Amino acid sequence: MRLRPIAAIALRQLYLLRSSPTRMLPMVAWVAIDMVLWGFISRYLNAVTAARINFTFSLLGAVLFWDFFTRVMQGVTLAFLEDVWARNFINLFASPLLISQYLGGLVLTAITTSLIGLLTMLAIATPLFGLHYAALGLRLIPFVMVLFLFGIALGVLASGMVLRLGPASEWLVWPIPALLSPFAGVFYPLSILPSWMQAIGHALPPSYVFEAMRAGLAGHAYPDFDLALAVALAALYILLACWLFTRLYRYAVRSGLLARYSAESMS
Fold first, then answer.
1. Element (H, E) at 91
2. Exposed/middle/buried for residue 45 (C-beta within 10 Å: 0-12, 13-18, 19+)
3. CA nearest neighbour of 78 among 102, 100, 109
4. Looking at residues 146-173, what average pLDDT do you find?
5. Cα–Cα dist 245/250, whole Å
6. Which of 40, 106, 108, 239 has a CA that sits 20 to 30 A from residue 83's CA?
């Protein structure tokens, strides 16, 4: 696969960020607010409870991981939506650009934007609230990998949904992380959920990350098999999301949907 078209897609998004500070502000503002809010909540709970649980890791750490996943997903969808808002699809796909190259450019953009958000969160959580992820050691690698891969998969899936339903359906994209969070067990173990919610939770790779994090904080052994399963699930979801996006793109080309894009279209 040629890498220059992938870099060109990502470079276009970086030029947009550089030329518009208002695009950069949400990338750091919301994560900064989350870190400050949950950091003080965690500090308060540590002060007023005699529990052996370190709320800084169990709450603030969970928020940081979930925000990172959300930034990855939105890094893909926002880059895609920039082309939607600019009515740029005809220009892109009139060129010899492959779908795989276009998706690769979106992923490269998501890597950059999610790293900005992650560094912002760490810059606040580490010095102010003592959240040191170095304590997780090498376990941090599969944690981040699972959240990153699943964020990419969900971002590609959400982009395909907008491609099929039209630009106005972008409002269906933003609530997706919030809708998944009760099933992923971000703040509580899956065992307290009803059986049907547990079944959904076990199909979501992030749930294994948060279960493993809580197991480690409780002094139990990390479930290596579960983390390996989570990585495999996330990789499978990426393949399925890319396959579905390709099918939806081909449908949009055959039906002329790309040429009929408008802000009011929902068909």
1. helix 89-93
2. middle
3. 109
4. 89
5. 9
6. 239
186 three-state secondary structure: coil
Task: Tell me how far apart the alpha carbons of residues 66 and 151 are, in angstroms, rounded to a whole number.
Answer: 10
Query: What per-residue confidence (pLDDT) applies to 135?
Result: 64
With CA atoms as reference, report the closest residue to 169 among 75, 257, 67. Answer: 257
Taking the CA atoms of residue 68, residue 72, residue 73 and residue 77 in that order, the dihedral angle to the nearest 10 degrees is 140
The 10 Å CB-count burial string (b at 16+, else e) for 147-167 is bbbbbbbbbbbbbbbbbbbbb
Quickly count: other Cβ atoms within 10 Å of residue 96's Cβ.
8
Task: Give the percent of the chain with pLDDT over 90.
Answer: 34
Beta strands in 180-267 (DSSP E): none
Single-letter code of the amino acid located at 216: G
The pLDDT value recorded for residue 182 is: 93
More confident residue, 49 or 136: 49
Q: Cα-flanking dihedrals φ and ψ of residue 262, to 5°?
A: -155, 160
Separation CA 218–CA 54 (nearest Å)? 9
Instruction: Write out pLDDT tens, residues 179-234.
Output: 999 999 999 999 999 999 999 999 999 999 999 888 877 777 778 888 899 999 99
Averaged pLDDT of the chain: 85
Q: Which two tokens stand for residue 60?
A: 């603030």
Cα 248 to chain centroid, rounded: 21
Tell me how far apart the alpha carbons of residues 122 and 133 are, in angstroms, rounded to a whole number: 9
Of the candidates 43, 44, 73, 42, the one whose C-alpha atom is nearest the C-alpha of residue 59 is 42
What pLDDT does 263 receive? 41
Residue given tokens 């547990």 in the structure block? 198
